[in-house]
Fold these 3 entries.
Entry 1:
Amino acid sequence: METIKEGDYILIRFKDKRYLKRVESDKNFSYKGGVLYYKDLIGKPFGITVGELQIFKPTLEEIILYGIKRETQIIYPKDTFYIAKKLDLSEGKKLLEFGTGSGAATMVFSSCVGSTGKVYTFEREERIFKTAKRNLERFGFTHNVVMFNKPFDPKEVKDIQFDAAFIDVREPYPYVEAVHKVLKPSAPVGFLLPTANQVEELLRHLRPYFGDIEILEILTRYYKANPDRFRPEDTMVGHTAYLLFAKKLLLDTTEAVNGEK
Amino acid sequence: METIKEGDYILIRFKDKRYLKRVESDKNFSYKGGVLYYKDLIGKPFGITVGELQIFKPTLEEIILYGIKRETQIIYPKDTFYIAKKLDLSEGKKLLEFGTGSGAATMVFSSCVGSTGKVYTFEREERIFKTAKRNLERFGFTHNVVMFNKPFDPKEVKDIQFDAAFIDVREPYPYVEAVHKVLKPSAPVGFLLPTANQVEELLRHLRPYFGDIEILEILTRYYKANPDRFRPEDTMVGHTAYLLFAKKLLLDTTEAVNGEK
Amino acid sequence: METIKEGDYILIRFKDKRYLKRVESDKNFSYKGGVLYYKDLIGKPFGITVGELQIFKPTLEEIILYGIKRETQIIYPKDTFYIAKKLDLSEGKKLLEFGTGSGAATMVFSSCVGSTGKVYTFEREERIFKTAKRNLERFGFTHNVVMFNKPFDPKEVKDIQFDAAFIDVREPYPYVEAVHKVLKPSAPVGFLLPTANQVEELLRHLRPYFGDIEILEILTRYYKANPDRFRPEDTMVGHTAYLLFAKKLLLDTTEAVNGEK
Amino acid sequence: METIKEGDYILIRFKDKRYLKRVESDKNFSYKGGVLYYKDLIGKPFGITVGELQIFKPTLEEIILYGIKRETQIIYPKDTFYIAKKLDLSEGKKLLEFGTGSGAATMVFSSCVGSTGKVYTFEREERIFKTAKRNLERFGFTHNVVMFNKPFDPKEVKDIQFDAAFIDVREPYPYVEAVHKVLKPSAPVGFLLPTANQVEELLRHLRPYFGDIEILEILTRYYKANPDRFRPEDTMVGHTAYLLFAKKLLLDTTEAVNGEK
């Protein structure tokens, strides 16, 4: 049975709160009601209860929500989980991403393409790039991620035919043609856009490069875990972003196939 | 460049509709405005436009939504995409699933654990089992899926320590203890429950086996892709199911760690 | 006790469906399972059960949803109920409305301002105007409604200081200044706008005429009335319109009050 | 033109915040950036701008949200506006309400039934009753409201046939029969229920007294009023309550009408 070691990350659940902490034998977690000395956890299995605390092995979602440093608004797991599979990411796929942001989405994509796949990610802001790099290193997502500290530059990936692309920058419009070029035919692309105006503007730039357009929002509604008073939580996240998906169309192929009409 | 071959599945987009079809050279797709002869597609790349039609390589989501046969209500990709990553599925993980249903969720899980992982799935209804088996075979998801035509039976998987479990049966309550036994410590479990009553009842059975409980619904809100009249679609899916997630607690460990209080 | 008379409207509930019908003694309501002869209802009270049917006195909401003729998309009661009270309509208030549309909103407003209030409503399309007129006459809402078959024309209401205004036309922007003029100071105005683009455009026209701007959508989520399988309905209305509310600002008053800063 | 007088309530909008204040000539409103002396407002019209402040005449919604004292969770205007019209309240109607709570719903109902209607409201907790009484007096809603400091007691209203009833108590089940008795045939009743369990339980008690059952939630989604970055607010109210509506059925009338089957 796997046991907790020095340097491991743990997820502490205390009442309704969650904390992601690193086990360092000379440190402790102090909470209303007591103190947990990390050295007492070493050699113990995950899943144990310590007084009012429950100690778990963190999942990727928890690493993103409670563990990573952020210079920008992170993309929520509710969105990245959907995006990753909507882009059909699986073992061995190659993804283009920009901007990297905090690296939260990059981690999810990395976990989807596995050791035989690859994520190429661009971030132009140096400060943000460095934070993302540290996040990816800290939680072990560098083996299949290639990072660039610059705006998306097709020359850096010119020999690669990507299986999918994910774009999260304020002004994605000028990149539409370049992204189209590096994608495999029919490959899906996803955009994350906080405002309605951005969606409207992007829609004007997608033709004739991309088709099969789909726009949606993902909303999560949480419930109180009380069997006798079951009801939704009082507040919820009202909006993170609009997601726009499309697929690469081959240009000048309209005439390529006979038989219709 | 990958080209369309006899026997390939294609996704046809025609106006606002999508169709998943198998390319058979002696067949055709007839639509309002013309006929597409599949033989004309063979040797052509995906991503082409044929008159009013766009021809794509289907994604997993489209296989599930438009391609599989169903004996029961399928689980929507909006839910399974979230469940798969919430259960922290990635390369090499072992998942327990029951019931299999149409196999839609199984496909998503299979795509997440990859060639080094494994999904063990149980379905007791023979008719449903057979449909799921055909779906998984037809779309190539059998290499890492082990199927059982019976209710969940711990004896069948007694040497396996699972990384996660997903349970979608009408009455999951009697299985809580048995699922707890086959999971690794701290491992996540997910339940899909259509009604509030089921959530209330399950909450009464989870203690002391599972902690860190989270209950939520995923709602997707689609928008019309019109840059000059941007607005949500007139109707939306109102409800599919409540999702309940928890993590395995080790029993009798409350006293195992000193130092608190 | 009030009893059903010839010519009355009744609301028939049969299983999950509702029907609004007029009691005419030589007619009947035929449904799967039987026939209801209206003459048998005359002299009976509302609220009775006839086999599988329940017979009620229709509410305003039911008149709108099941009774009125429509040339255009009606405004849903979920929206008009909110709008009416958000505009602070009550006994004796004077409301300006355009366009009238089917008259559904007009009925709600009429019911709010009562016999001492008044609704002035403009509709430029003759066909739509006539339908609205018939709807209002048929269900008794003409006593406090004044209708104009023309675009909003301030000259028609030049001696009136309105307590509130409600505007539901495709291009409300040119009317902002004229509406401002006929409203009392601080009076609320509401706009119904189906698309995000309209909201964006209107926001650019409201200053300096209106302040205290609020934009929202009203969503209703219905549940199945089954105590053992309580859950939301499978589908829901995804969008009707964005509602924008604001209040009349007096122009050139910034300097009117001393004491600040 | 109506002007601001000593003792009037005003709604101050400052940036994104709203404040409901009483004009007292020896007092002032102090905010980041300055001080507003109320004496300077007296004699001025509503709707004026004073530096960064906008001064409005408060609407009923604002009185409820920013003005009233509360001992309990208030019922939100989004819910009461809908309830009031769903119960078909209009000029002259008689409504039964319990419990009164803070009086927020009572105010909305009072404004709907007008000077010829009446709201009879029961509140058993003395502390809550007194707060509600003060709220109703302070904002002028006592002329058509009759208050009782006791649980709902049919003897107090035994000569009244109510047009509608609204019930907001934790355990409404024992009152179903008594409410049925005091309502006119076919009259609507509304219940406000925070939890799913309460809805399930109430559904078991409604038959055979009430039919035409409808259960829903009202969700409001607010948007930022920025024409160049139009998007929903980051957070939203996730849940206030389930609303259940039904209509009085006459008992033992199933056989009263012939003709069917």
Note: The radius of gyration of chain D is 22 Å.
Entry 2:
Amino acid sequence: MRIVLIGFGNVGQSFARIVIKDRDWLVKNYGLEPQVTAIVDSRGSCRDDNGLNLDRVLKVKEKYGTVQKYPASVESKTSIQQIISSVEAEAVIETTPSNFENGEPGLTNIRQSLTARRHVVTSNKGPLALAMPALLELASHTRMQLRFSATVGAGTPFLTFASKCLPGEKILGIHGILNGTTNYILTRMEEASLSFQKALAEAQEKGYAERNPTNDIEGLDTAAKIVIIANWILKRRMSINQLKVTGIQEILPQRILRAKKSGTRIKLIGRLTDSEATVRPEEVPVDDPVCVPGNLNALSFSTEHAGDVTLIGRGAGGEETASAIIRDLVDIRTEYSI
Amino acid sequence: MRIVLIGFGNVGQSFARIVIKDRDWLVKNYGLEPQVTAIVDSRGSCRDDNGLNLDRVLKVKEKYGTVQKYPASVESKTSIQQIISSVEAEAVIETTPSNFENGEPGLTNIRQSLTARRHVVTSNKGPLALAMPALLELASHTRMQLRFSATVGAGTPFLTFASKCLPGEKILGIHGILNGTTNYILTRMEEASLSFQKALAEAQEKGYAERNPTNDIEGLDTAAKIVIIANWILKRRMSINQLKVTGIQEILPQRILRAKKSGTRIKLIGRLTDSEATVRPEEVPVDDPVCVPGNLNALSFSTEHAGDVTLIGRGAGGEETASAIIRDLVDIRTEYSI
């Protein structure tokens, strides 16, 4: 399968490393031979219709900070759109950062890829949070696959679980922790009696929080994931503006302490039921399966006959996110034999 | 899909109730219309090639303790084998109790059903614990499906999760709590400082433990599930005799207390790695996702790229188990269009 990779940060580079390492295994077990024919990063791009040498691309990226210096680089004025439409590829992997204002540049990249009849695998929540119904419709119209396992739970297959593991069972609602950054902050506020600001600073030091942590702490990241689950699993067409969202930035240590004394913990919970879609801090009993520590994610599915089923895993990380992209490619490969 | 139902206890009756309640929904969503053409219980059987009236069968069972009194009952000397081979059906559901001595009567029922070219869905762990490699081979030889989602986790789809949600990912090992009875006993020993005997008595009172609790407390039930996971998920051909199994019957309150003081809990853990397959009490840190309370089950999959992924849910219950049987039927229906 020939692939154009847009975005070559942590996730994109992790993807390249897994492809290098697992190539033989993927071919043998799934008939999947990913061949990256172009890579676009924020400062340039490179292409080779016979397949880029990924080892070499990674070295160039490390040395120069952009893939533009790769021997077979692309004329620097070439637009992403030109690359999407002119490079030989069956699939586009979109890993630019999530933008919840207008979804760009991911939104345009995904639209153009589907229109150019490329399957799309993305780890970018922005376009889906803002325009998922329209993007699903476009994919359906162009008969291309649009996959986004990596957007919810990174390597933990929350979406796949809901769509493949519960046939014949009705999902009545879901709730859980979908953001590791806020979970880490809240955990540390309790464990070490830190203020919100101190816990945030610690999370930033450890690389669990971004320098601009707004999307995480204000709940937008969780809200985007709830939107994706609503559209994909519960077939409810909605966008992020329809959610009531409260973040954790105003949580005081006293509130954490009060919760602890009553056998609960404050967690930023995303929740979807028939009647509501919310993101807000909630008190969760300590022995509830979704009450996970550190930067773990946990999502509980309420089912009609099997009761509550909860899935727990790391919700972030370059390698974890890249593994979800690989899963999506395997799925597309299995369905399309490309 | 026409079905012969063998075993009409809690699981079989729950299955009948779900079929009555969800019939229209299953037809509409999955094209699955389960039609039960015969039911066998320990004291008799009934059949109707045009489909039994399940409401009526349930009433007869409740009133007389056997389905034999159903109007269209079967000549009382008819053997199960005759019913399997003569009743019109595409599938046999086998829900007789698990027997880890010789697997009977389930083992014979499953063999004969596959040989008579019926798909088999079973909730019976005994035959699989003792002879899973042979049964899988027989199913493959007769080109029939042998499904057993209900045997591990009841309604919680541990097996489906591992086989469908992690394509392109390597499962390096698994470990977890696969028996709700022992988990309930251990939880109560800690929570209420009970002795093993008292906690067991309480579990029996609440219906969480059977009158003869040997299979649960000695670890055989967990071991059977480990065997099923080993064969199905890790493709390792093994049977229950190859496992090292230690139960919880000799756990003293002091050991529970010691663990508690060190921030852990004693849990009966089934574990599969490249080099070992064990069932034994282990100390699990309280904030480990598999450290679940009450009678919950939890299974953690160690993966190469996505880290540990843990699935938690109820591991028992008639309705929960029946929901797994429905899932298997939906899967067979989807693959075979019957």
Note: Chain A touches chain B through 50 residues (CB under 8 Å).
Entry 3:
Amino acid sequence: MNGLELGTIDPSARISRNVDIGQNVTIGCNCIVYDNVRIGAGSVIGPHCILGEPTMAFYRDRTYENAPLVIGADALLRAGSVLYAGSEFGDGFQTGGRVSIREGSKFGHHCRIGTLCDVQGFCDVGDYCNLHSNVHVGQMSSLGNFVWIFPYVVLTNDPNPPVGPLVGARIDDFAAVATMSVVLPGVHVGRDALVGAHSLVRKDVPPEAVVVGSPARQIGTIHDIKGRSDGQPVYPWREHFERGMPWEGIGYQTWNERRKAGLA
Amino acid sequence: MNGLELGTIDPSARISRNVDIGQNVTIGCNCIVYDNVRIGAGSVIGPHCILGEPTMAFYRDRTYENAPLVIGADALLRAGSVLYAGSEFGDGFQTGGRVSIREGSKFGHHCRIGTLCDVQGFCDVGDYCNLHSNVHVGQMSSLGNFVWIFPYVVLTNDPNPPVGPLVGARIDDFAAVATMSVVLPGVHVGRDALVGAHSLVRKDVPPEAVVVGSPARQIGTIHDIKGRSDGQPVYPWREHFERGMPWEGIGYQTWNERRKAGLA
Amino acid sequence: MNGLELGTIDPSARISRNVDIGQNVTIGCNCIVYDNVRIGAGSVIGPHCILGEPTMAFYRDRTYENAPLVIGADALLRAGSVLYAGSEFGDGFQTGGRVSIREGSKFGHHCRIGTLCDVQGFCDVGDYCNLHSNVHVGQMSSLGNFVWIFPYVVLTNDPNPPVGPLVGARIDDFAAVATMSVVLPGVHVGRDALVGAHSLVRKDVPPEAVVVGSPARQIGTIHDIKGRSDGQPVYPWREHFERGMPWEGIGYQTWNERRKAGLA
């Protein structure tokens, strides 16, 4: 391999002085690491990435200092991803290629952000959230834990564009928003809810509800949905899906019982 | 900082001979500036940008010469933006990361083009237009001044894809098109009009109209819309929004009176 | 020109040892070519491209070897495109800027994939397919020959996100899917069919049908569509469009007769 030699920092990478790089970190060719970036042990930063991209004030204010960018252990960033200064990412953070994440956001552990996602900043994201390709997360959005968002979904934030004031959407634990849907400003999608593809979500979605359409209307609950092959329930998805989840290999129920007992 | 030292041209940048670089221009690392590019004074070109990207003829015709790319003063291009040969941008032009703008387009002053926008070429854009992230502007589109277009909007141009003939959409001064809407070929969105999120606009939109839905239907005028908090009008937005506008600090009315009097 | 000197391999490009580069290939600056990539004669790889991007196993398995990436003759890849290891592309393959194509896919000859397209892998694509900008092709999608897909279309694959099992969409020869449409998992779009803009396609589309809406409903056949200017039929498009097609200059009918006679 070349351009990305595991465990090494490519000589073509530009690394600022005030950077804290953990043990066994890989940094690929042509990366830029600006001031005040911390990279956790075992992380792999693919080629052409930019870490600590300065915010607008950099260009205007001679006293500008980059806010810290903190990346946890064992991150894996695909080529060309750009993380702005002033955000924070838990352990096991993964991105696809050419992701952009702006300033002021906080991500929990084990989040995966797909190719070309665009997180606009000042967002709050829990643990084990999965954004598929090309998701647009407006400023001030809030995601719980184990949230799934599929390609080309937009979480908006301006009720009267461009006037504001901005108010983010909120997506609760275990909810899933299917492809090409828009969640309007301030809308709250409840725990375990499912938003169907190509929907426009104007009103709050109750927990476990299934909504579809433009504008979206509730058509039932997640318990009404059966698998095509066997006619068995497929939701809540956490009882039927394990890959990459902390309950992989033992199932959600067992994991959750252990967790409640303080064992996981 | 590194990879982007204000006021300097990074030694890793590839600069052609026939390039005209104004005073106090910054060019970041790994940029490519092809033939016949002019960059106005005070501009900042972020890392990994490509200016004057050759058009298809370059690969086929040995006598090819790059058409001029003209960038006004005080531009700010975020990392990885690609501007093709043969377009023209007024002063104060800004892009987010990884914008693509193809040949044959003309942008006025103080336009801002968000992350991942894709302008297909042969477009005519006025002054102070704002394209948020990931807007797709089809060939031959025409935008007035002070137009706002929000994420994932597509301005189309082919009434019978892929047969053509192409006919661009036209968006008039002060109009706003909300996220995930499609404007069909040749459609004319009137001055001050508002297109709601997730709409399919098949017919012309009158000035000051509000349209929503798929297909879009008029539900009122912008004067019917009241702010959530105070119940007061929020449109026309120019009377309620100032950031980045030429009337910042004095308000639209005062600015407009001064402008009419030849003072602004 | 600079950064992309036709017929040369830029010295800044990182080329692995086990790479097979045909005659008269161009590789632009800052490209990375990983192990086991084959590039056909006459191909042009623009700056900042990555060929043979390793799959996830690379980061986990010390015995990992890159699966072969095979690119046919006369390819033209625009700047910043990323092709993963383990896919195969016929002759005359073209991409716009910053395309991503993942592992396990097979493309026929003369396909053109627009700016920012995201092909998720394990897809089967025929000859002369055209994906316009920013198309998202889910894993396990299948496209025939001469298929057109327009900006921001999503071909999905998970009937019960994120549970699966995945089942791709299938688009037959000569079909066209207009902008911002979603094709649901396992849906089959028939030969010569047309999906209108901003549609949600939940059911199979018969050959030659025209469907529109969310959810999409059939409104007629392609023979009902007349050109705006002359009132003449415009579909099937292959009888009215030639640019870049193998029948350019002679028309579809003549080409097809020759083809049937074994002459084309």
Note: The first strand of chain A starts at residue 14 and ends at 15.
